Each structure stands twice: as C-alpha cells, then as structure tokens.
C-alpha cells in the first residue's frame, strides 16, 4: 500500500467511527440516553478505574473530569478506527471485525449497567451496524476499487474514485458529527425530567431553618459565599449521563435488617413535615485548599423517622444507600438515627434539587464526606452491617467510613492577583461539620500564629468564614492557616493524600506583593 492509500484507509476508518458514534448517540437520545455507547463505555471505565485514577482525574481536571474522559474515549476510538481502516484495506474484513467487536463490547457493557433498560443494547448495536457498513464501503473506495471488488487487489489510483472516496468519507464524517450534536441536543428523557422539575413547586417546610446569622457573610470579594448558589455548587459523581428520575415514578425502599420493609413514594414523602437545614457538603477528594465543598440550605425529611418505621435490628450498624445508577454509600446507622439533620433532601436553596445534584431525592448527612453519605438519585436503603456489605468506593480502595476532617482554606488574597503593598485582608473558610470550628489562626512568613476573627457560624454543620487584616509589604510572602475545632483539636500540619479517607495539612499561599 502506498502512503496515499494508507492515509485514505485510515481516514475511512475514522469517518466510519464518527458516523457510528453519531448513530449511537442519536439512537440513545431517542430510546435510552444512559445507554449511548459513549455513556456506557465511560461509565464502565469510571467503575473499573483504580483509586489513583480518580484522584488524578479530579486533580488534573477538577469537575471537568467527565469532559476529559469523553475526549479521551473519542481519541482512543479514532485511533482504533484508523487502525481498523488500515486493517480493512490490507485484509478485509478484519477492519469490519474490529468495528463489530468494539460495538459488541458496547452492547455487553450497556446491558450489564445497573440502570440498563430493555433496549439498552440498541444504540451500540445500531452504531456497530453503521460502522461496519461504512468502513466496508469507504475503505473499498479508499483503496480505489469499486464496491464489491476485493480490496487488497492492486489499487487503481485514479482521479474519479478518489473524488468519490472524498465525497463519501466527508459525508459520513459530517453526518456523524451532525448526529452527535443532534443526539446530545435531543435527549428526550432529560427534557422530560427537566419539565417535571420545572412543574414542581417546592413543598413548604414544616420547620424552617433559622435565618443566616448577621455577620456570617463577610462579603469580601474573592471569599466563598457563606451559602453556595446552586449553579456554583461543586458536582462530583460517577454519572456521565445524569440519571433521569421522574418523581411520579420514584420510590424508596427500606429493607434488610429491619422488622418491616418500608416503601415510600414521592407523594408520601413530600406530604410529610419537611425540615430545612444548612449543611456543608464536602468531597473526600478535595485536596487541601481545594474547592470541592459547598454549603446549601436543604429541605428534606429526617431519615431517622423513616428508619424508625422500618425498625432496624439491634445488631445492624450501617445503611447502604443506593442510587438508581448503581452508586452506593455506606453510612453508619447511628449517624442516621441521632439528632443531627440527616435527611432525604428534595430541595436545595429554595428550589427542587437540581437534576445533577440528585433530583428528585438525595441524602444529605452532616459530618461525613459525600462518598459515604450524600447519595444522589437515591432509591434504596438497605439496613445492614459494615462486615456484611461494601459500598461503591470502598471496593475501590477508599475507607468504609468517612468522617470529615478539620480543615481551613485561604480564599484571599489569591495568588497572582497583583497585590500591591498596603492594607488588605486575608480571609477564608474553615470547617469540621457536626463538630464545629472555634478558631482559625494565620501564620505569615513563618512567624507566630495570629488569631483571625471568626464570623458567626450558621451551625456546627456548616463551614464558617474567617478574616484577618494584613498590612502587606513589598516582596514575597508565605501565608498559612489552621483551624481549631470546637473540641480543641488543632488542624494537623501533617500532609495526607485524599485517599483513602480525606486530605490533611495546612493550606498555604505564596504571594508576591508589588510596590
Ligand atoms: N448517585 C451518586 N451519588 C453520589 C455520588 C455518585 O457518584 N453517585 N458521589 C458522591 C460524592 S463522592 C460526593 S462528594 C457528593 C457530591 O454531591 P454534589 O455533586 O451534589 O456536590 O455526592 C455523592 N453522591
Ligand atoms: Mo466525593
């Protein structure tokens, strides 16, 4: 094969793959969004990824980790497709076999997902069909022989077949891209759930949260707001395609080591006396100084009350909560039955839960990292024991229990903000949910620790803002902070990685102050 033929064969393979991906995405949009080939392959990769891969993905891409994964899958797919094109040109139908086998992997993964519907196989199967036909036809054009001829005959490299090749390959690519775009715009189910959410009024709370205390919001530019707006709230989950749960069809089953099983529907849940509470959620993958933390006013019903209906047996010590997409979390039973505001939440900052934050129902538990407590799109609570059952991240190297560690963060001054000498303010947030923070200290240029002033906290279940006036002098400076908990614990200097149970260490900023 000469270079021209090789290039065309590889392009033919890639065009066939783009067409196949488009067909798969479009089919999925109509019949089963969560079963699109990209969604299922991505979901399987997320599930198979070792713990360090999750760390690295979040460390590199933060909350854009999902886009990074999809781009990665696309690159690998194009590379495989180019190879399949070459293979098809050299020895048909080997390229078709590669495309067909890739689609078959998609089908198998799609039907084995926990949220698979009866037609979960269809998008990948149609994608495979389109891919096989396209690569067969396009590669034949690429090697310059007419369709129907044997492709590895000596190429007849003339102008007319080349034009025909370019036209067909271009068309396949363009149609594929349009189908990809169309499929993603036309997620029928996602639109239906959005409409269902828009149509819902938020039920009135029976117990309102006390107002945010005066002075809790320091209003310093650059400092995280005391209540995080929904659209700025961090999002972390394993769901490449957001689960679509219609409240009308939602129910939660409480079972396992209980006296009686309890099933509760959406209508029953929202007719119960709902309570408001402020709770700061934090991700175990939040590095020191990181932003995978947010504070909201939640509206929900105490899980304690629902568990009481089911009557857990005395030797149970854990509740395994499971989401519709198969994610699960292990929460100590006593944390769900003591007097804290562990709730099945339906509202977030006076709105129904945003779809990506768990609509229609999620768990919110003060004091524990999200991976062991904050199950979104929750549908099942199994009362069990830590020695009998294991949650999603526990099987991937994370700790079975995840109490939030004492932490503090410097928000301002920001590095590289172009600070000039003179009076300024150092400010940030500190937290140890359900324990509370009693103080924050700041150290400048390795000097003595100075007490910052602490704004009033909303409650022990939320973070708190702190600030310290500072007269900045020209030159480089190193600023550190550490929190002191309500029980007198001083935030440790010792650096720990996020895995297996949360980062520790002091947040620090190197700053350049200009004249
Ligand atoms: N269904 C489901 N719920 C989930 C997760 C998930 O992957 N799937 N991730 C958990 C983790 S690790 C965190 S930190 C919180 C984040 O909640 P948020 O996205 O609303 O901020 O959700 C938790 N609930
Ligand atoms: Mo998390």
TrEMBL record:
The keyword NAD does not apply. Keywords: Membrane, Signal, Transmembrane, Transmembrane helix. Residues 1-20 form the signal peptide. The keyword Transmembrane helix applies. Pfam families: Oxidored_molyb (PF00174). InterPro entries: Ig_E-set, OxRdtase_Mopterin-bd_dom, OxRdtase_Mopterin-bd_sf. Residues 241-393 form the Oxidoreductase molybdopterin-binding domain. It comes from the Bacteria. The chain crosses the membrane at residues 67-87, 94-112, 118-139, 165-186. PANTHER family: SULFITE OXIDASE, MITOCHONDRIAL (PTHR19372:SF7), SULFITE REDUCTASE (PTHR19372). This is Molybdopterin-dependent oxidoreductase.
